Amino acid sequence: MSEIPLRGRKPTSHERMTGEPWDASYHGGPAPWDIGRPQCSGMCGCL
Q: What pLDDT does residue 4 have?
């Protein structure tokens, strides 16, 4: 388990479960949900 830099706060449930900081998915490449283009919110009528 890696060291989570908390900066004076309690870890989130995800941080406790994974042992990684909340933004770890942004390091070392795109986030898993990043499809490389803007995503429609559904409010614009594209769905």
A: 56
